[in-house]
Every structure is written in C-alpha cells, then in structure tokens.
C-alpha cells in the first residue's frame, strides 16, 4: 500500500500536496471515507467526478489491470522477481518489481491513449462540437472520417512513391492480435460500447472511431475492417469527460495527453503487483514464464 501511495503521489505536481491534504482532499477523508477510485480520479484530472464519469473511470481501471502474464509490463515486474529468486521468496524485493513495471511501459505499451487524444483533438477542432455526449451534435461523422481517410491515403501513397516504408499508424486503430478477419473487433472495445449503450450513454469520439475503420476499408486504404482498439477507448472516454474543460481553457492539450498515459499506469500498477505476488508464489528463478495450463481469468 505504501508503494501504491508513492506512485499515485508521484503522478501529481508537488504543489498539490500539503501536510493535511492531497489534491484538495483532506487526508482524513482519504483515509476514512473516499474510495481509491475517486481519489485517483481527482488526482489524475483535478475535477470532482460526476457519477457517469466515475463509472467510466472505474470501468477503464478494470479493463487495464492486465493483458495477462505475457504482457510487457508484467514481464518487467516478473523479471525483477525472477532475478531475485522466487524459489526463496524472502529475497524478493517488491519495490524492484514495481520499478520493473514502470520501465516496461512507454510510448507504445501504454502511451497510445495519449496519441489517441491528440488525434481526436485534431479531427474535431473545427467541428464546433460542444457536448460529446449529445447524439444530436449535428456533425457528419462519415464526412469527417472520409476527410481524414483521403488525406491519409495521399500520405501513404507519397511515402510508397519515395520508397519509404516508415508509415505512421493511426492511433487507436488495429491491433497485433485482433486482426486478419474480414471484420475485426477488440473484445474490450466491444464490451465498453455495449455497456455504455445499455446505460444510454453516447460518446461521439467512440462513434467516430467506428466510422473511421469502416471508411478506411470502403476507401480501399485497408484490406479489411480494422478493429477499434482499447487505446481508442481510453482516448474517447477521457476526452468525453474533459472536452468542455478543454474548450474553456481549464485543460490544455498537453495535460490531456499526460492524463491518457497516467490512466494506464494506475490500474496496471495494481495488475503488476498481482503478477509480482503470483510469481513469488509459483515462479522459478531466472524464468518469467507462466505455463498456459495455469492461466485463468475472472469475469
């Protein structure tokens, strides 16, 4: 718990700490009343959460705990455990395990959410969007997607004509696992979309991503329909919460991008602590592997 507290505290500016409060919340309230989800929401976003926003935040935390024992961040944590030697658990240092988790997150593993924020801001900056939760926003999402797809197609063509294979990927689109079918889906994204629809909640940014992957295929830019991945969901949910503060100048684009990465770190911190505990109990020295036969999931 001390390590968790240190990581959460280190994620905010020093001027938001005081002797008897954290991010404006009294220490007595944090210790006696507030759930950790609300504490981290305020720490991350600097806003008092509305019930719908807190629900979205808690759902993201659940989804981002882990991708399983083979995920890169878990490998960092388990590598630190296996280096100390889980066959003699008294030698294992938990702080090294969490340091390993931090060194194994970055721009690609965990950072794509912040790239998605920048991408969505760029696409919607001239649309006049006021409320991303209003289905009657009046924006032609198909036309908006087609405008981007046409520009992206020209960009790809130029790159290929100059002999360059260094083609920038679209943030939040496609996935190394969920691919190669005629129509692809990231099951985590599908779950979130159905969950929010069942609650009667609309998110124009999430809908735009669905329109975008379909338009990429229809325009011949992709050979199949790419999935909308979990990084797109992070960006869409977070930007929906903060779009109006962003428009009013309360939140900068840079702050949004930082929040998108940090919101990955909070739950993954918990998931990797579980991986550390698991590897201490059944791991082997100098071995980060977990037998597939021993892997289970909780739903």
From TrEMBL:
InterPro entries, sorted: Citrate_synthase_sf (IPR036969)
Name under which the protein is recorded: Citrate synthase
Source superkingdom: Bacteria
UniProt GO MF annotations: acyltransferase activity, acyl groups converted into alkyl on transfer
